[in-house]
Amino acid sequence: MVLLTFDKTPATAQQDNRKIRIANIQIDPVYLAEYKAALAEHAKVAIRVEPGVLALQAVYDKAQPTKVTVFEVYASEEAYQFHLKTPHFLKYKNGTLKMVKSLELVEVVPIEIAIKPQLIRK
């Protein structure tokens, strides 16, 4: 399964309908293992069942493991709005409320997004 498939035609930011954002999340250390498991489950389900979720890539800071960054790519604003109403997202969001100390959502515009398909875990 290839998570990211982008047209090779050059596009300006105005032509690109994808919604791309970075979530910077600070987790309560008491819940770190539980949070990581919930986020991993959520991302796997979203990628598997939602055609409009193109990528959900989550990492944590090696030096400060409670700092989590999620790179999100949706096919469109509509795909993102649909995602927010799915049972798996609501389970993740409601189930992790007590674990999240802070959340910053940053809207970004791509310069280039490239990934080798063979490096993607299934």
TrEMBL record:
InterPro entries according to UniProt: ABM_dom, AI-2_Isomerase_LsrG, Dimeric_a/b-barrel
Keywords from the UniProt entry: Monooxygenase, Oxidoreductase
Location of the ABM domain: 19-109
Top-rank taxon, per record: Bacteria
Transmembrane segments: none
One Gene Ontology term of the molecular function aspect: monooxygenase activity
Protein name as it appears in the record: Antibiotic biosynthesis monooxygenase
Organism: Pedobacter quisquiliarum
